[in-house]
Amino acid sequence: DAGVIQSPRHEVTEMGQEVTLRCKPISGHDYLFWYRQTMMRGLELLIYFNNNVPIDDSGMPEDRFSAKMPNASFSTLKIQPSEPRDSAVYFCASSFHTGPNEQFFGPGTRLTVL
Amino acid sequence: AQSVSQHNHHVILSEAASLELGCNYSYGGTVNLFWYVQYPGQHLQLLLKYFSGDPLVKGIKGFEAEFIKSKFSFNLRKPSVQWSDTAEYFCAVNAQGGSYIPTFGRGTSLIVHP
């Protein structure tokens, strides 16, 4: 398996633009997580899905952020409109039942909003 | 809710030095504990994990961690570090019997000089 795949790896955009980050989890994993990593706040859980259904989005910072998982092999995180304070590395992770099982992380998307 | 504290934000060592990174958590119940490593430019990957049994857990690349329940600690150790151990290290905890969603510490940046 190729692991968790994220695209793009780097994104530079201007304030006010829409940004869409993409994630393909490991096949067979039924949980998918979106994290944001910054120097100031560390690693933050934004939202997670179980069997494509959003379970907890309490970490989503504002209504400008939205996430979808239309099927078991694809998820998106959208920011509209983007702001400079959204600049961060966004990670997607998947796991097979949360349980005590480890999470497998993607390479991340480094977002810079000018 | 659980929380994780990593006291060392930055650690600088010379090769062959011994390493100990602190991790303390706050949660009254039974927990699962993890250490993840993030090498420069790469994704987070599991270093080791503790669920039950022997509180001294051995992981990859010569790392080990000891769970001390009375101290709510899960410190990471390595007797002799190498330049290739330069990375960011994250401690994480999730609650057994709960949602199993992990809480991550802020991370410790380790730089090993050759």
Uncertain spans of chain A, ≥5 residues at pLDDT below 50? none
β-sheet strand percentage of chain A: over 45%
Q: How far from one another are the termini of chain B? A: 41 Å
In terms of structural class, how would the helical and strand content of chain B be classed? mainly beta
Helix content of chain B: under 10%
Biggest pleated sheet of chain A: 7 strands, mixed
The average pLDDT score of chain B comes to 92
* Low-pLDDT segments of chain B: none
Order of helices and strands of chain A: EEEEEEEEEEE
Main beta-sheet annotation of chain B: 6 strands, mixed
Overall body shape of chain A: globular
Q: What is the largest interface, and how many residues per chain?
A: A-B, 20 and 21 residues
What's the assembly state of these chains?
A: heterodimer
- What is the helix tally of chain A? 0
Structural class of chain A: mainly beta
Helix content class of chain A: under 10%
How would you sum up the global shape of chain B?
A: globular
> Which series of helices and strands of chain B comes N to C?
EEEEEEEEEEEE
Number of helices of chain B: 0
Task: Please give a structural write-up.
The complex is a heterodimer of chains A (114) and B (114). Chain A is mainly beta and 114 residues long. Chain A has no helices and eleven strands. Chain A has strands at residues 5-7, 10-13, 19-24, 31-38, 42-50, 53-56, 65-71, 74-79, 88-95, 104-105, 109-113. In chain A, strands 2, 4, 5, 6, 9, 10 and 11 form a seven-stranded mixed β-sheet that branches. In chain A, strands 1-3-8-7 form a four-stranded antiparallel β-sheet, with no helix packed on it. In chain A, a hairpin with an 8-residue loop joins β9 (88-95) and β10. Chain A is globular, with a radius of gyration of 13 Å. Chain B is mostly beta strands. Chain B contains no helices and twelve strands. The mean pLDDT of chain B is 92. The chains are: A mainly beta (114), B mainly beta (114). The interface between A and B is medium-sized, with 20 and 21 residues.
